[in-house]
Write a structure and sequence with these properties.
With about 160 residues, the chain is α+β, with helices and mostly antiparallel strands. The protein has a single domain, classed as SCP2 sterol-binding domain (Nonspecific Lipid-transfer Protein, Chain A, 2-Layer Sandwich), CATH 3.30.1050. It is built from six helices and five strands; from the N terminus they run ααββββααβαα. Strand 1 and strand 2 form a beta hairpin. Helix 3 packs across helix 6. The termini are far apart.
């Protein structure tokens, strides 16, 4: 029987986006990493799950920086939610507490780690990053498009 590469294909397709995400996060948080602000992630695993898709990954801090790997059953903190809700969070249109209390973001595991992550992200000012305005505009337009599509393509109520 000839071996097949089919089971390995999805993993091969996921590696480039995970690698690119790690590079991006390391660039965005390079100063914070150098200042030790990300040390709370060292030796711990954060699992991010987009519940409305098959996208999920683990994030940890190692000697070389932030590392994004395939999601596994081993994590210290898992945050799950719809892609739309993560976009709202990234655009700072809605705060994490609101999404959590509305049960749109689910957090499991080490609550101390979750609080450290929330405090770290709340303290970040990303407006000085190259292309920050462009990224924020793109996020807001994607959110607006989602809202418009939802409003105009909703099935009639009976």
């Amino acid at each position: 029987m000839v071996p097949t590469i089919r089971p390995a294909l999805p993993e091969c397709l996921q590696r480039p986006p995970r690698y690119a995400l790690a590079k991006l996060l390391n660039r965005i948080f390079s100063t914070a990493r150098a200042d030790g602000e990300l040390d709370f992630l060292e030796g711990r695993v954060l699992c991010v799950v987009f519940s409305d898709s098959s996208i999920q990954f683990n994030l940890t801090l190692e000697d070389e920086g932030l590392v994004v790997t395939r999601a596994s059953g081993h994590w210290n903190l898992r945050i799950s939610g719809r892609l739309y809700d993560f976009m709202l969070l990234a655009a700072r249109s809605v705060d994490a507490d609101t999404l959590f209390f509305q049960r749109r973001l689910k957090i499991e595991g080490n609550t101390e780690l979750g609080l450290s992550l929330k405090n770290f992200l709340d303290a970040q000012d990303l407006s000085g990053l190259p292309y920050a305005g462009l990224l924020n505009t793109a996020l807001l337009k994607a959110i607006g498009l989602h809202d418009w599509l939802l409003a105009t393509h909703r099935p009639p109520q009976q």
